[in-house]
Fold this protein.
Amino acid sequence: MHPLLHNDGVTMKPLRLVVAINPTASFGKSSSVGPAVVQTLRAMGHDVTSLQEPDFEQLMESGRKAVSTRPDAFIVVGGDGMVSLAANLLAGTKVPLGIVPSGTGNDMARGLGIPHENTEAAIRMLTDLLQGPPRTIDAGRVEYVDDETGRASTRWFAGCLSAGFDAVVNERANRMRRPTGPSRYTIAIGLELLRLKPIPYRLVLDGQPLETSAMLVSVGNNVSLGGGMKVTPDAKVDDGALDVLVVQPLSRIQFLRIFPRVFKGTHLSDPRVAVHRVRTIRIESMVAVVYADGERIGPAPVDITVVPGALRIFAPA
């Protein structure tokens, strides 16, 4: 390939890129984003392979084959579910990730400073960042027993893991067909508040056991989940640690008072809220279900470890 000229006159290196498009984005307002990304990158002279499959399982398989060819970047078009797919394909490899957010929550993009409400701006940022080195961030590795196969399994997450009320809300929201967008989470919160009760846990934080009941247990590598709920507002994606949020049992009225503060990230000042910064955590519970980056892992127990520098990603430093 020959060098290309960027629109500001800078000489660019043509790259071999893979673009994976969310299978659920075939219809609606996001349907044009994937093709626009592919068209833009090809117009710039890059060698682009577009991955479009009818479901996530087939997209994962196509993505695995594409990553094995060691492209210059693996770009996902979609929300946090697509980031989850990419994290599980790319963690521990040298293939960097690019994100063009067009999903419901877009929490990973929010935390990384990628425009999450303006796809044109996100595409422009990506094309600029592709000409420089990617940054390196941490990822969480989850070890668990698959509740369908009974086999020991491993999953990765880049953003947040949920194992309390937030996971219950995720479970409800993922079953809802309407509405689309962040309001789906808000409605799911209201519905689950009617059944609100604390969950008993045994947590092991860097080897130290903690028996507790809690309303909310979240493990953050990133800041937010659910479309902007800043559950772990002080988390950093590159500090080699995970922030574990534990909210003590609250009455429904108390919970209703504190929960809106989660959207602003001001809930940490409440004495019933604790954050533990750790490298490893085990979550045990008879009833808790676990989600990571909005995708269902399954019932507890799970063992979580932060892996520093596991992912390379095109995002602002």
